[in-house]
Amino acid sequence: MSEEWGRFHEWMKCVGVVTFDLELGQKLEYCFPPDVKLGEKETSDVCYMAFPDSNSSNEPEIDERFFMRLAIRQRKALSIFNDFLKIHKRLRNESERYLEPETRHFSGIAFFRQVRDASIHRGFYQKAVIILSQLPFHNLFRHIIDLTAPEYFSKGEAALESMAAAVNRWPSPIAGETMELPFLGSVLRVRLPAYGEAQTVRSVESNQLLPTMAPSRGTTLIPQISDLDLYRPLYTAFYHLSVLWELTLLGEPLLVVSATPKQCSQAVLGLTSLIRPFHYCNEMRPYFTIHDSDFKDLTQPFTNNSDSSTDQNKRRQGLMLGVTNPFFCKTLTKWPHVLKCGGLDDKMSKKTKSLDKIKTLELNPGFYSKHTGYLDKDKASIEKVVKNVLSNTRRPPEVASAMIRRYFATLTRSFEFPLERYISSLMPLKKQIDPFKPPPPPHPFEVKTFLLSLSRSGPQLTSSITGDWTSLYRDFFRRPNFFGWLERKKIEMRDKILELHAEATSEADVLGWAEDKTEVEIMDLLLQMKQKVGDLEQLKLFRIRNGVILQMEHLKDCLPYDTQKIFQMPQPTTL
């Protein structure tokens, strides 16, 4: 990975063009920058994913933009790539979880164009501009490819080189920053939220979605760096969104079927965004075809001849696929939940339909499942949301999406609140922290103890929704989404305990402690404090870090002169 394109690679892996070759089929015609080398399977996956699986000669003129997610096959190359991109490590520590750089997948976006051309043997010109990145900045990349692809189709490869050069001049992606990114004659203004930053919509009015960001001429505001339109792709499923939220939270297998890659890919990404701040930790492919290298492994549990024990194990892991090929509905008959997305002209479906009907190729829009949900449907609130969304069709889709997100953000916060309260009780008491002993670990998460606490401090304190909350939590505790959330909380608790322990160390009477201690004991404490200083620097706790260093100076003076000379002290931070 060359340093020449270092800043570009902080944002993207590559930009390329996929074309149709009469002899070879889809092929990667162009890839930039020149230092990028995709593996054979990665190239094959990109080529097949970049062309709509359902595109038809009945629609000779097609411009379609859609999202994909591809497994990274070259593990050795990925290791080198990540070593080069230290900024990605920083993002994992500082950004919201859903914006963390991917480690095993590329997030991709394609802009496919088909036009009739009599000079070509097949009668059609077919090409797709693609962008691959380890950053799930879907909305930002949507704006970028919408500007880049038309330039390529009119000016050729030079347009992609200009695009890459523009990105290469951008600042590094830093969490907590609002960035202005010059791009092809305009400026994209976007914020990259830091971890814990509130993701709330202050108003559902379009002119108040970004109240603090007044645009200048030539500036395009991107309200959310990742969030996409929910309104159009999930329009016919509005009355099922509560159950779909539940299934997504649990990581239940869900097949999302639509007529176009754009709709199914945005539906999948939209559903996984509704459970924030919980991160979707299961396998997810916004757009999936039978040509994907993982097709057999991912779909085997849902075929007629799959082994039942293996089937059950894999189902528990969760999987969400977006597809357009009717083959999936006909062949994958054991799929437990299927959502068929319709268009804005279709009626909203209110009743859950039987799974027996998914074997037909002409699947009607609706939700097909046996799952009725742990929670009772909040019919009044859902009707209110639907009414508000439909009352003014002239509103931008972003406003309708914001209303839906706000409803589910409130629901998710009610679900998370008891978990957060219980997590806080697992922290050791301040009086249990001894600066001269190793910091105590947090108490373990006990499911039984948590469930018993729900009667006095459960979701009913913040939500009017009734139902079997206890069973929902119990099921959630067996799922990857819970383990991903708990792992992040353990890191937070560890960091907080480190901060409290370091603060106690900076205020302790180290000279009094050292009076009856041997040289070995003093050195041992100094080495522990030195390790603590490094950890504090990573956490940017510079004031406490300097306090610990000052205490180290006092302890060092207690050592023999010869030992003092060989002990390397860390330098304090200038505040």
TrEMBL record:
To which protein family does this belong? Belongs to the DENND6 family.
Domain UDENN intervals: 13-490
Lineage of the species this protein comes from: Eukaryota, Metazoa, Chordata, Tunicata, Appendicularia
A Pfam family cross-referenced in the UniProt record is Avl9
List, in alphabetical order, the Gene Ontology terms for molecular function in this entry.
guanyl-nucleotide exchange factor activity
Q: Which GO terms describe its cellular component?
A: recycling endosome
Coiled-coil regions listed in the entry:
none
**Designated name of the protein:** UDENN domain-containing protein
